[in-house]
Amino acid sequence: MALRLPKAQLPAELSENMIKGFGTTLEPVEAVWHNPGVATANLDFSRRIAEWDALDESLKSFAHMAVAAQVGCSWCLDIGYFQAQNQGLDLAKASQVPNWRASEVFTALEREVMEYAEAMTVTPPAVTDELYDHLLDALGPAAMVELTAYVAFVNMATRNNTANGVRSQGFSDSCEIPLARRTTAADAPAGASPA
Predict the structure, then answer these.
(1) Which domains, from first to last, does the chain contain?
(2) Which pTM was predicted?
(3) DSSP per residue over 31-42, as a string?
(4) Coil vs helix vs strand at 136
């Protein structure tokens, strides 16, 4: 799949800042810049989200990548894994998020956060009282509110990218550990359930 609309011309300063930070311009922004008001609001909210600090960065990263894997947003998986490396997060764990259910590297809390992210992502949402209450006890109210709002925003971003035809730009190719690919029903051995 390719971008479903041509890339819009970004303002020079925005383009230069992206190139400084990422080595290239970001295709999701180029796609959405056809409506600068939408693009600017999205960028502003993304910057504000980056300032939130009630929830551990690893948990946010794992939640983001779990949603991206479930929705099928290769761009979000790509950039999420790249950012995990740049933030000094545990790449042995982050690399396994697309196939987290089959991996044994995650703590119980990390697994519950990814389960919650996936439960929020399915339609209709499948968040149970038990899962919510357990995470609330483990994280506290401020972090739980942050996790919920963060997963909701990531759902918007992943679905926006997927609908616009945005694909991986290869950011994660620079990561030392390759990113696992999500297991599907066709990949699972007989009798095993896919992620």
Answers:
(1) 53-173 (1.20.1290.10)
(2) 0.89
(3) HHTTSHHHHHHH
(4) helix
